[in-house]
Amino acid sequence: MSQVRINIVDIIGTSNAIIQKFGNQIFEVASSYLNAGSSIVLDFHSISNLTSGFCNASIGQLYTKYPSIASANIVIENIDQSSVWYEKIQDSIVLAQNPEKAVIIDNAILALFD
Amino acid sequence: MSKFSFKGRIQTDPKGVQQLFDFYQFAKQFSNCWFTIDFAQLEWFDANLSSELLLYCHNLKKKNNLKFFIDYSILKGDLNVLSRNGFAYHVVHNKEHFKPVDDRETVIPIKAFNPDNVDSFADYIENIFLKQRGLDKIDKDSKDRIKSSYFEIFDNVGIHANTKSPIICCGQHFPASGVLKFTLTDYGDGFLKKIAQHTLNEIKSGADAISWAVKGGSTKPDAIKGGNGLKKIMLYCFKNAGELSIVSDGCFWSLQNKSINFHNLNNFRTGATIHLTFRYLN
User: Fold this and answer.
1) How many CA atoms lie within 13 A of B49 on its CB side?
2) Contacts of B227 in chain A (CB under 8 A)
3) Does B229 touch chain A (CB under 8 A)?
4) Which residues, including other chains, have CB under 8 Å from residue B251's CB and lie 6 or more apart?
5) C-alpha distances in angstroms, A43 versus A26, A88, A92?
6) Between β-strands B3-10 and B179-185, what pairing exists: parallel, antiparallel or unpaired?
């Protein structure tokens, strides 16, 4: 199986990975490689800002659409594992893999409306 | 007479927002003339609301060819913030009287962004705002959270706006009380249009549309789990005495003091405004 490196900054054209639209661009590019049977490396080198919205739209969406192959075929590089960014990425994966956690968060929101 | 007088206190609440819109409704009756914005009877103006007022002035200049007059001698004391944050300069274009110099370093200057221009917005938040001397007390983690929240809200406004017209931002911080106020506003579609279409008109009011959005509803065919961070901001505000207000489709929705409230606004405009207040000394 071939492995393709996706430099995030090259795809979105900026170091600021802060909007969902950019996350969707990464999802589309990554999907095309996964559909073709390649594994991918999502390279965060040179990224200066990252939001949950971007992570959910890119990585979270990949884990939702490819639940059986995502863990084995998506590698994330150039993220410090002790950073807040790493947490955001992990959160997006956990929410995709465990929809019940998303429901728990939604219920916490709903409780505010009671 | 082509003059509107603001009175009392204009704060980030339904009354303040309505008074700004009343100004717009009144001024819309005039065209091709000078128009005086009178602040003489004004006691207080939340600087973050300058973005809303500038949006109205921008439209009035463009659509009605109005030219504005502001008596610079009135902008002193607390009202001096309207000069320091660049509002008066942008409305009147008189740098001699309204040169925006923030000697107190407590304002987040007023600025307009194209919804796609994320680099300019990121630079504004990181380098113009968060490096201010007055924010030295905020630790790095809190600054990162604040920065990230502003980015998420910028994204959220962009998603709903469906417009090429600018998003206008402005804010203020109060170092003594540890309060940060920030507002983003646009003249796009607002929340209701897309949500009503998506729900086949099940959602019919501004209040219901905002509730639906903050609860995590998405107008995308395949909703992205986790959404765009608005829910996280809401929970953070709930836990940390912050405030989140969204104005759209004639509704002022707010999370304040851990409770959610709705207020209907009279004959309100299209577009959306998001106000975010952090309390960083808690």
Assistant:
1) 19
2) 53, 56
3) yes
4) B205, B206, B207, B209, B210, B262, B263, B264, B265
5) 11, 15, 17
6) unpaired
Q: What is the pLDDT along chain B (282 residues), one digit of tens a residue?
A: 699 999 999 999 999 999 999 999 999 999 999 999 999 999 999 999 999 999 999 999 999 999 999 988 888 778 888 988 999 988 887 666 656 666 667 788 899 988 888 999 999 999 887 877 667 777 787 788 888 888 988 887 777 677 777 899 999 888 888 888 999 998 888 888 888 888 888 898 888 888 888 776 666 544 555 555 677 778 778 888 889 999 999 999 999 888 889 999 987 788 889 998 988 766
Determine whether the interchain pair B154/A99 forms a contact, defined as Cβ–Cβ distance below 8 Å: no
What is the C-alpha separation between B206 and A68, in angstroms, rounded? 40
Give the gyration radius of chain B's Cα atoms. 18
Which among B229, B234, B258 is the nearest to A51, CB-wise? B229
Cα–Cα distance measured from residue B215 to residue A63, given in angstroms and rounded to the nearest whole number: 22
Question: Min CA distance, B52 vs chain A (Å)?
Answer: 23
**Closest Cα of chain B to A42: distance in Å?**
19
For A60, the closest of B214, B216, B225 (CB atoms) is: B225
